[in-house]
Design brief:
Elements (H helix, E strand, L loop, with lengths): L11 E4 L6 E2 L14 H21 L6 H15 L6 H8 L6 E2 L3 H10 L5 E4 L3 H11 L8 E3 L10 H11 L6 E5 L2 H9 L3 E5 L15 E3 L2 H7 L3
Parallel strand pairs: 1-4, 1-6, 4-5, 6-7, 7-8
Antiparallel strand pairs: 2-3
Helix pairs in contact: 1-2, 4-8
Length: 229
């Protein structure tokens, strides 16, 4: 894919959260002993929640990201013939407060913060989830803003959320680079005027649909290198 990234335009960098900064596949650990293939069910759990989040916008049925993942877990387990009560489902879903961070996150945030790019998070995650993520990833001292869809009760990839994030970080969208492992998040950011950086964690192939990303990297270090931090 062509690289159209323009480093001089970038004054702030925002990041997606789940799948980008922390590994959603690590949720599989709470499914051990419940299902035959914990990794596959964890992937279905996550896929369900992502799908529901997009549909929720179109139907004006906003729900917190925690609740959307709760629905995703319930349906993933039912597909496996496992039907749990609400309390047990919530206990399992709480793993989204303690997912494993990727090893490049803390180092990348330090590099960006040191160079003045004010690394921030723009996420569907509700504030409680983001607070846990920041602690788990060890970026408490370097993250500048935690921008949640809950602020405006609008989920990705609606352009309003990216515009809200740009306002929160104090820059117009065209001065922000948004880094994410999700193609629809990249395209959502670009639709709002940001430069969209696809962080290829190896789990998702870029689709034929829509425009290509402004930049593709395989680690946060790749973003830092392009910004010469």
């Amino acid at each position: 894919m062509a690289d159209a990234f323009d480093p001089p335009r970038v004054e702030a960098v925002t990041f997606d959260s789940y799948g980008t900064l922390v590994d959603t596949g690590s949720a599989a650990r709470v499914l051990d002993g419940l299902v035959d293939d914990p990794a596959a069910v964890a992937a279905a759990w996550r896929k369900n929640a992502l799908f529901y989040s997009v549909v929720a916008n179109d139907l004006d049925q906003y729900g917190t990201y925690f609740e959307l993942h709760l629905d995703g877990l319930r349906d993933a387990l039912r597909t496996e013939g496992v039907d749990l009560d609400e309390e047990r489902l919530r206990e399992l879903n709480a793993v989204y407060h303690d997912l494993d961070p990727y090893p490049d996150v803390a180092r990348g945030f330090e590099r960006l913060a040191g160079a003045g790019y004010r690394p921030s998070i723009c996420s569907n995650g509700n504030p409680e989830m983001l607070a846990s993520l920041v602690e788990a990833a060890g970026i408490e001292e370097t993250v500048v803003e935690l921008v949640s869809a809950h602020d405006i009760r609008t989920l990705k990839p609606a352009r309003e959320l990216y515009e809200h994030a740009a306002t929160q970080v104090g820059n117009p969208p065209e001065r922000v680079a948004h880094v994410t492992c999700h193609w629809l998040d990249v395209q959502g950011a670009m639709n709002a005027g940001m430069q969209g950086v696809f962080l290829d964690r190896g789990a998702v192939r870029w689709p034929s649909f829509g425009p290509p990303p402004t930049l593709t990297v395989d680690s946060i270090d790749g973003v830092c290198d392009r910004l010469d931090t």
